[in-house]
Amino acid sequence: MNKKIKNTRKRTLKDKIICSYNSTKYSLFESSYLRLMRIGYDKPEYSNVTANPLVSVYMPTYNRGQLVFDRPVPSVLAQTYENFEFIILGDCCTDDTSALLSKISDKRIKFHNLKNRKKRYPVDGDNALNHWLAGPVVAANNAIKLAKGKWIARLDDSVIWTKDHIEALLRFAQAGNYEFVTGAYIEERHGKKEVGKGHHANSPYFGFKQKSNNSDNNPIIGGTSTVLYRSYLRFFKYNINCWRKKINRVNDIDLYIRMYKAGVRMGFLDKVMCEMPPRPGETTLAYDAFISTLEEKKKHFKF
To answer: What is the pLDDT of residue 263?
Structure first.
């Protein structure tokens, strides 16, 4: 799970209006649409532990070709569960991502590269943090549109999955009749590895007043690269304006908390499902890595 980012910039009236509109829209639309989707698609086949449905794995990326080729791709191709498609969505990559992936003769890998990468949010001064908060949104939403599977799984472009990642999460979701599941993960910071288990959805970490507990109504939400959910939930889109919010500003957190509020049935598998080592040239992860290499990140993600 990405670190919760506090808003240190002064929010404008425009920020507040857009966020208020989005909050109202999401609260009215998403819970109602979820009920409609369940009428049409919430079938017993989803809880059949002997079924082997197509799983759509998607990964947004931007100019990290060698990293993608060395880490996530081999870990996906080594999965014990073989009925998947792997959608790699380049956000108008200009490096060797396409050339490297073309060397792999596996039809399950599908690389799509957006044709343009327009400015989507302010990045001047301290606003460069918006690359971290909302950077993957456009590519991720486009990848989800292409998914053909009964289930959808998310993977970041520097993460290594365990060999049983898809199989373990899928069987767990089927057995528990969950619509959305996550798992534990190993993260490495400054040479030290630790198991991360995420946070309860209804807890102070996500801005709620209620303390964490183990009730079914307060599930743990684990790491982003452990997310697996039913494909009829694809109407939940990443929010390009997440950076404008006061809390839960990171794009993935914004999405998962909206799913929780809408009533999606969530489960947490207390088993390590992936490893998150630092990217080459970095010693830590996520927000900490972004801030510690801010100037490099400004150049890398420049529009």
So the answer is: 97
Place of tokens 């996520």: 286
CA distance linking residue 158 with residue 72, whole number of Å: 6
Average confidence (pLDDT) over 79-98: 98
Please enumerate in sequence order all residues whose Cβ is within 8 A of that of 50, keeping only pairs 6 or more positions apart, or say none.
none
The confidence band for 236, taking pLDDT boundaries of 50, 70 and 90, is very high
Single-letter amino acid code for the residue at 249? R
pLDDT tens digit string along 19-32? 999 999 999 999 99
- Condensed to tens digits (0 to 9), the pLDDT of residues 99-135 reads 999 999 999 999 999 999 999 999 998 899 999 999 9
Helix (H, G, I), strand (E, B) or coil at 145: helix
DSSP one-letter code for 225 = G
Cβ(269)–Cβ(184) under 8 Å?
Answer: yes
Taking CA atoms, 6 is separated from 50, 133, 246, in Å, by 44, 11, 7
Distance CA 70, CA 59 (A): 14
- 158-203 pLDDT, tens digit per residue, is 999 999 999 999 999 999 999 999 999 999 999 999 999 999 999 9
Query: Which of 279-291 are b and which e, b meaning 16 or more Cβ less than 10 Å from the residue's Cβ?
Result: beebebbbbebbe
Under the phi-then-psi rule, with left for phi > 0, alpha for psi from -120 to 50, and beta for the rest, what region is 2?
beta
- Ranges of H-type helices in the chain: 13-41, 65-70, 72-77, 97-101, 130-134, 137-146, 165-176, 251-262, 286-292, 294-300
**How many helices (H) and strands (E) in the chain?**
10, 11
